[in-house]
Amino acid sequence: MTDLSWLVEGFGRFRKDHFESDLFRRLSKQGQTPKVLVLGCCDSRVDPAIILDCDPGDLFVIRNVANLVPPFENAGHYHGTSAALEFGVCGLGIEHIIVMGHAQCGGIRALMEGASGDGHSFIKSWMKLAESAKERALSKSMEGRDVAKECEKEAILSSLSNLMTFPWIKSRVEEKTLALHGWYFDIEEGTLLNYCGGKFEPVTQKTAC
After folding, report:
1. Most buried residue, 23, 38, 43, 180, by CB count within 10 Å?
2. How many CB atoms lie within 10 A of CB 38?
3. What is the rounded distance in angstroms from the CA atom of residue 168 to the CA atom of residue 93?
């Protein structure tokens, strides 16, 4: 079993190099006031704050398998992602929601391969949210890794669509106090794409979609 001493040592460096800075003193007094919510994947390689070079307090981050957003519903179940969205939008006054997908997504791979059986029941059930994304990707006559990448991008679009089923998101989008964005990080190429005008294009400082 892996030893955790390296994490304890890391915490020591964090306290020395970061915690005692003015940033954390300010954050501890004023609370959090982020204007951007990033809904990303829980893949350990794709931390949004690192990819976007942000400081603590800059982003309100939600992470789950394959960066999926379930549709709005009032059924009596546990809704971690929906609860976090509600807190970010209604509680913190978020102005931008970015759904950030990525290449080599394990959740999408499980969806494409039809994961089933012991140890995959939760994943299989969760990934049903992206079934329509899989169907759209397969309809484009691609093969191998290309179709998986297409599905990863289509899953972003499914999440953007599901965001609009939440009444308190839909109303804010229509009032133009909240904007939704679909971004795709290609861990293989080191590129970041933005969905705009019906296609994914490189993110620029003038990105408006």
Report:
1. 38
2. 26
3. 11
Instruction: Give 83's Cβ-side CA count (13 Å radius).
Output: 6
Please state the CATH superfamily assignment of the domain spanning residues 33-202 in this structure: Carbonic anhydrase (3.40.1050.10)
Residue pLDDT tens, the chain, 209 long: 999 999 999 999 999 888 888 888 888 888 899 999 999 999 999 999 999 999 999 999 999 999 999 999 987 678 999 999 999 999 999 999 999 999 999 999 999 988 654 555 788 889 999 999 999 999 987 766 789 999 999 999 999 999 999 999 999 999 999 999 999 999 999 999 999 989 999 998 766 66
Q: Range(s) for CATH 3.40.1050.10 in the chain?
A: 33-202
Query: How far apart are the C-alpha atoms of 142 and 151, rounded to whole Å?
Result: 10
Alpha carbons 129 and 68: distance in angstroms, whole number: 7
Q: Which residue has the tokens 């789950």?
A: 64
Q: Tokens 């969905």 appear where?
A: 195
Distance, CA of 92 to CA of 85 (rounded, Å): 10
CA 77 to chain centre: 22
CB burial class (10 A; 0-12, 13-18, 19+) of residue 196? middle
User: What CA–CA distance (Å, rounded) separates 73 from 71?
Assistant: 6
203 close to 119: Cβ distance less than 8 angstroms: no
Tokens of 95: 């102005």
